[in-house]
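Dissemination and training. As part of the outreach component of the grant, students in the summer workshop were shown how a complex can be specified as a set of sequence lines and then modelled as a single object. The example used during the hands-on session is reproduced here so that future cohorts can follow it. Participants entered these lines:
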Amino acid sequence: MGAIDVSRLLATLVVLTGLLVAVQVDVLSHVRIFGVVVMVVWLWPLVLGLLGAGPLAMVVGAVSGLCFDAHAATNFGLNAAVGCAVAAVALRLERNGVGDIDGAAWWTAPALAAVGGVVAPLLLIVAGAFTLDFSLWRGSLMTTMVVNGVAFALVSRPLLVGTRIVTGLAPARR
Amino acid sequence: MALSPSRRRAITLSVLAGVTAVGLYQAGGVGNGVRGLAGGVLRPFSWAVNLVAAPIGHLLAGAVNYSDLVSQNQQLRSQLGKAQLAAGVNSGASQTLAALDAVLHLPFIGSTPSVVAQVVSVSPTNFAATVTLSKGAADGLLPGMPVVANGGVVGRIITTTNHGATVRLVTDANSSLNVTFGKQATTVLVDGRGVNNGLAMSGIPVTAPLTIGQILLSSSLSGSTMPGGLPVAKVTSISVTPGSSTYAATVSPVADLAHLSFVDVLLWEPST
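and obtained this result:
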């Protein structure tokens, strides 16, 4: 990728990330499913990781998490840590050719996203324990995991396709 | 087996990073600074999304819920009429009470000054039950001040900025309040059980009579975090273990926390 391409990709990702976090904070926090907020800020780095954005996916995961953390009353940085971790796993999967939206079966990416949606709340609770906050598990954890898992599975493929069209990102062909 | 230098360096750096992270969280200062900065960065995006999303949301909500809105409006008018009637009746009673208070020098909760604030946002996360208010330190709000609305206690302020404050709702997992009930003024602790899960109360002595539907009031014991006598919760179920000297109860907040729009912040600080 040339320097102009990278700059264009970076600018696109900054705008998309800002918009997604704003949608998360201003829209999705009011549209609760069974009382649960769907966490698109966790799905976003997963999608970028699967699309082969490289370390940029982790940076985006951290930045979108930090922006979200600015609006949440949980310890600052928890969502950034989760975003980073999710992106790291997605990156590893992409490097091993798993979740390729063209090469793999159509259900692979939604299945991976569903697992991400189920595991991400657990990661947040583990991260919370490192900040000595042991109360996070007392919320609706199971509902949060199930709702996010289902929502991630449903939304992941359109988001993957849409992001690829807008950014031009694509997993490396092997 | 000796560790390689690179692994030793990685372990040392991890330990140092962990200790630094815990230290920063305990200090809180750096976190608040970065939080403010990140909030500023996101503001233009929020503005753009709200500009587009709000009219669409209102249009859809209006189209779908029009009949509900009409009936809600009628109910509100009826309630307003009743409230105005009650206010007229109460004004005479409060004058008498104020006169008695002046004579007896009793603390009178009705005289606690308060600030009306608008709820500007609800917690965007699944792991904390909070709301953000439109007023902050510049209006005299301080962390720890109680917040009431919709007929009961809503929560307490946990952080303030110049023109905003975050309120931890009574249902938050980190929230706990002293409440009192019955003729013997039994005092127990009510704990939040997390977002969407209401409240819980345990360790109630079997000698203390508690009935379903009973209202629990904030305790006025020394060191309480709320002024005494505020309605906090209503008993919804009671569970008794045979042979036990205590029992537990499930309670729900008296205030309707799902429909908060304006709240009263009591300018009251706990006695030391």
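DSSP finds three helices and twelve strands in chain B. Students were then asked to discuss how this feature might be tested experimentally.
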